[in-house]
Design brief:
It is built from twelve helices and no strands. Helix 4 runs antiparallel to helix 7 and helix 8 packs across helix 9.
Length: 299
């Protein structure tokens, strides 16, 4: 007959073996081609907007009234806009701001959502009810109109946009983390950790959170695309990043005035927004297929 102490000591070993088997199955599951292409495209876009100014040294804010709406040339690879500013340099600056706001906002959303969802799923009870009702209330609000009100009252700018988008996008992440914690908290390895004297924080961080990382990665990639669309929409309406600073949203808004004069001014930022958002969505779908153990088992 196996003693209680030996069963407790064996339980973490069984749990570790289970986790290793799950990790091996995920490694065997390859990211689909669309996900791999999307990842490569996103790496290229991010590297281009960050390091592009090192190659194209034209300032994005230098005005040249003598060369407005200039055609593409060696000095201006994509031409100039209505003020004689270099279009490619403006796209670089706009990409840095738009992508930075989207990524930073998702970091805030993931941090808040992980904290709230983890506490809700792990402790349960009254705390779970309070936190989930808070999430339900936030999800019931028309988020975009709430953002319009906040930016109209406090102004736009990268920092304000980052915080308000991040603080209104944590609910989906919280629900994902909560469901994962609820799924794993009743397993034997969690009970064994408690019997061995592990604190709540250690159990949440070392035993439960790693199981939620795959779902968290998927939620984060799709959340970046939503945050980028939100920033672009606010900037397009003139309540986000305002000139002379450039973002792909306000570049698109400014280009609509000259749609018949130079339609490419609208095509460039519009295509970039569309392609980056689609790439993040495809990457999220690819990660879901690669990291989901059930999908890996079927494949």
């Amino acid at each position: 007959m196996v003693s209680e102490t030996s069963s407790i000591s064996l339980t973490p070993m069984v749990a570790r073996a289970t986790v290793q088997t799950s990790v091996r199955s995920r490694k065997r599951s390859r990211v689909p081609a669309t996900g791999a292409v999307a990842f490569a495209f996103l790496v290229l876009v991010h590297a281009t907007v960050v390091f592009g100014p090192l190659v194209v040294r034209t300032s994005s804010r230098d005005i040249d009234p003598a060369h407005v709406f200039a055609a593409p040339s060696p000095s201006h690879l994509l031409g100039t806009d209505e003020a004689g500013r270099d279009v490619l340099a403006r796209l670089f600056e706009g990409g840095r701001l738009s992508l930075s706001v989207a990524l930073a906002a998702m970091v805030i959303a993931v941090t808040a959502g992980t904290l709230i969802g983890g506490m809700s799923g792990y402790f349960g009870g009254g705390l779970d009810n309070i936190l989930m009702r808070l999430a339900d209330g936030m999800m019931a609000l028309p988020t975009f109109f709430l953002l319009l009100v906040v930016t109209a009252l406090f102004g736009g700018g990268p920092f304000i946009l980052t915080f308000i988008i991040g603080l209104t996008a944590w609910m989906g992440v919280a629900r994902v983390i909560r469901s994962e914690f609820l799924r794993w908290r009743s397993h034997d390895f969690v009970d064994a950790a408690r019997c061995l004297g592990a604190s709540h924080r250690r159990i949440m961080l070392r035993h439960l959170l790693p199981h939620a990382v795959p779902s968290l990665c998927v939620a984060a990639t799709i959340g970046v695309s939503v945050a980028m669309l939100t920033e672009s929409g606010l900037s397009y309406l003139g309540l986000g990043i305002v000139p002379p600073a450039a973002s792909w949203g306000n570049l698109l808004m400014n280009a609509q005035k000259y749609l018949y004069r130079d339609p490419l001014l609208a095509v460039y930022p519009g295509v970039l927004i569309l392609s980056v958002v689609l790439a993040y969505n495809f990457l999220g779908d690819g990660l879901r297929e690669a990291l989901d153990p059930k999908t890996a088992h079927r494949n």
